[in-house]
Design brief:
Blueprint: H1 39-73
Length: 82
């Protein structure tokens, strides 16, 4: 007995494209703890805080640029007209 022609094995579907996100994972921004007791210590703490915020902003900007670059290289799905 032979099987029906419509019941033949179909070739396997092609594997979906593998998309690897090469952008780093953001980490929380942190500020150094302090307990200034003089105006000089307060000024120094302000400088340290500004540097910490600048470092955090630079890391966030780099991640955003990475995602934008990745989005430009990734083809978008096309939809059939309705």
């Amino acid at each position: 007995m032979t099987g029906l022609a419509g019941c033949a094995s179909a070739p396997p579907s092609p594997a979906p494209p593998l998309i690897i996100n090469q952008c780093s994972t953001p980490s929380p921004c942190t500020l150094p703890a302090s307990h200034p007791t003089t105006n000089g210590e307060l000024h120094l703490q302000l400088e340290h805080t500004e540097a910490a915020w600048a470092q955090c902003a630079a890391e966030v900007d780099a991640i955003i640029q990475c995602h934008e670059h990745t989005d430009e290289k990734t083809p978008s799905a096309t939809h059939a007209p309705d």
